[in-house]
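Session log. Operator J.P. requested a structure for one protein chain; no other inputs attached. Running the standard single-chain path with C-alpha cell output.
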Amino acid sequence: LQEGVTLIKAGGHFEGATVCHWMLGANRLGALLTGDVIQVVADKPWVSFMYSYANLIPLSASKVRSIANAVEPYKFDRIYGAWWGSVIPSKAKVSVQNSAERYINALR
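Structure written below.
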C-alpha cells in the first residue's frame, strides 16, 4: 500500500477478513477502516461483531477475541465503519476492547 497504511488480517466472519490501519488518520492519532469486521453500531461508542449481520448470526467468542487481539498492537483513536456516518470519532481503541469484552460476556 504505502507508508503508514497497514492491512491487518483480523479474521472474523471469514478467515481472511481484513481491516485497514491508517497511522496518520484522525489527526495523526490513528484510524481503523473496519468494514463489517468491527461494526460501528447505533449505540455509539459501542461496536459489534457478527458472523452474519443479514441473518443475525453471532460470531463466536474466540473469533471476537482474535479480532480484538489483532488490532490491539495498533494505535488508533477513530473508526470508520462500513456505512456512511458509521464513525467512532474518538477513543475507538477503548470502544473495541470494551465492546469485545461485553460481547464475550453476553455469550456466556
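Operator note: The longest strand covers residues 5-9.
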